[in-house]
Amino acid sequence: MKKIFALFVVVIMALSLCAVPVFAADPDDLITNGDFEAGNIGFTSEYRYVSETGHNTLQDPFVYAIGADPYLYHSAWSSFPAQSVSNMMIVNGATSTSDPAKLVWGQDVTLPVCDPVSTYPLYAGQTMLVGDVLVESDGDQICVKFVLNAGAITTGWLITEAHVAIANDGTGIPQTKKGNPIPGKFPVNEKTDPGDTEAGWYCLDIGEGWTAPFAVAAHAKIELPELGHWDTESEPDVWVVDRPYDEETAWGGEEDFPGKNWATYIDYTPVVCSTLYDFTMWAASSYHTNPAQLQVSINDEILDVLLLTSTSGGWVTETYTWDAGTATSATIAIRDLRVAYDGDDFVIDDISFVKQP
Fold this sequence. Notes:
Blueprint: H1 2-18, E1 48-49, E2 63-67, E3 88-92, E4 103-110, E5 118-124, E6 128-137, E7 141-148, H2 150-155, E8 158-167, E9 188-196, E10 198-205, E11 214-224, E12 227-231, E13 238-243, E14 246-252, E15 255-256, E16 264-268, E17 276-285, E18 293-298, E19 301-307, E20 316-323, E21 329-336, E22 345-355
């Protein structure tokens, strides 16, 4: 009878482990090895790691394993598969009141840098790429900056005039009846002498009721100063021109005005830098009494406590939203607040941390 019962348990376990749902990893997930498929790497823990299987290997508190079934590590625990794929973090929880909040799972994450500045080409004489037009918005204004590239700077070009206009669309930019823009009528009309390799930032208010994308007209006049030298051997001295004066008109963007000249504008949609992140985790009890209370914190800010149920193998999930503010990194921690000698055994799987769009 014992052999038949053992065989029955093995068959049931095999069938249950085959019924694993497919896990589709989010390509934007910032967590390393959140599904534990790579084993005991990518995270930290103040619990002791146990690599061996066996019905008594996780008998002590404050220990964990990375495996496919809790029953393989403790004979009193239920047998059930991972939330997805094959592995999960299997934990014997806290029992000591002297240190109930040891770190179960933790990971340091570097937050992605969001650049609110959009870059568009600045062409002079229609075909010569001489730099970039930088555009950014705070929601109330649109700001524009002209920057010459290394090639233009090496040649000796300088920005001597800058003209900027914005509108809800291209028709709102000051222009002739034939659709040719008039830079002299743009709200920003600035001259610099002797000129510079950068010009801006120039900021203009977004009109009431405007919606993205906006039209940004960015025009610059660039000049190549004359170079020469005095021929002192002649009588009298003669100025010799080594490089004649030159000037070009330059436009940012690649959207054509309706007129016949080659002037262009920028079709601009502001970059929104979200600071909100969604942290998601799955967890389940592996024993039917004293379910764990899993506290989630980021940068020592407690988000919430996930209360597990007494149903062994009953996976539950929770998503917490965290505002990074000005933080450039996130220290994520999961701790067990339950203190119990009988039970308090659980599993964790599919931890993710994704920036909201």
